[in-house]
Amino acid sequence: MSAQNLSILDTLAFNDEGYMTDRTQWTEEVANAIAEDEGITLTERHWVVIHFARKVFAETKDSPTLRQITKQTDVSMKEMYQLFPNGPAKKAAMIAGLPKPTGCI
Amino acid sequence: MIKTKTAPIETETAPIEFEPTQLGRRKKAETKKQRKLCIICSKGSLDMAYPPLILANAARMSGIEAHLFFTFWGMDIITKAKADDLHVATVGNPNMHPMFHIPTMLGGLPGMSTMASNMMRTEISRLGFPPVPEFLDMLHDAGAHIYACQMAMDMMKLEKNDLVEYAEVLGAMEFLEVADDAQIIFV
Q: CA B44 → CA A64, B54, B76, B89, B156, distances in Å?
């Protein structure tokens, strides 16, 4: 964990579950820092999901469910669990600077 | 410029602690023990098939280990020939939603259960939930474990290849070994 990334996260507000509270401050650099804090190194495939999640949120004001992500992008369910282990939809929303998804599926 | 006399610093008191700041990402507490959920699915009607599947999927989405043990009527859920054609009971079911409300006397007419089941399937898909076979595939991809009860298979004269290919056949005692340390739900 680099000192530089830590300092980015230290300048932003997060709720106690680790989700950003001010979406407008999200940048790709922030996403990288959150991912690193979660032990994930972002690849091109992660970005497909992150950009999709932000697009959905902009349209619906809700973070996408895992099923929405796997249905509407070319990322499969299996791949989602590989990209974002231990809670794929939650981790994706977290890194995309969005609130925790509320859908059941 | 008004000069005010500042109070002398009290060196004896404890140093002022910093207010907890809103900024920065909360450091996660040391990882607690991995949670594990075991669901025993003993019912095979359409309305009783979804709750355990939804719960197991929610568990996987939350990073919780999920194990599904299918037994008795629940076997229909993982039987390839039946999974896509589960029915809801229209006779003797006091919970028929007003939307599909069917009086018991009419519920026994031919086709009633099929009609009610198709209506329920439509509602389920409208909510974005997949049909049962696709749901099982999804759970398998999500890393949930699917087990079939050996005794129920014998009773219903089912072979391993009548079931979805990723179902593992287990006896009750073996399941209890799998379920060691887990939270168990019986549906």
A: 30, 15, 6, 11, 13
Full residue range of the structural domain in which residue A69 is found: 44-95
Task: Please count the structural domains in chain A.
Answer: 2
The answer to whether position A81 is within a domain reads yes
Question: Residue A70: helix, strand or coil by DSSP?
Answer: helix
Mutation target among B53, B61, B129 for the A interface, most CBs of A within 10 A: B61
Q: Is A33 known to be catalytic?
A: no
pLDDT string in tens for chain B (187-residue length): 555 555 555 555 555 554 444 677 765 555 567 899 999 999 999 999 999 999 999 999 989 999 999 999 999 999 989 888 888 888 888 777 666 677 777 888 888 888 888 888 898 889 889 999 999 999 999 999 999 999 999 999 999 999 999 999 999 899 889 998 899 999 9
Judge: B24–A78 Cβ closer than 8 Å, yes or no.
no
Are A85 and A48 in a shared domain? yes
Amino acid at B90: T
| Cross-chain residue pair A78–B23, CB shorter than 8 Å | no
* Residues 124-183 in B contacting A (C-alpha not used; CB under 8 Å): 128-130, 138, 141-143
Q: Which domains does chain B have, with CATH numbers?
A: 36-87+131-186 (3.40.1260.10)
Q: Say yes or no for a CB contact (<8 Å) between A105 and B62.
A: no
A51, A66: one domain:
yes
Pairs of CB atoms within 8 A across A/B: 54
Burial B6-36 (b: 16+ CB within 10 A, else e): eeeeeeeeeeeeeeeeeeebeeeeeeeeeeb
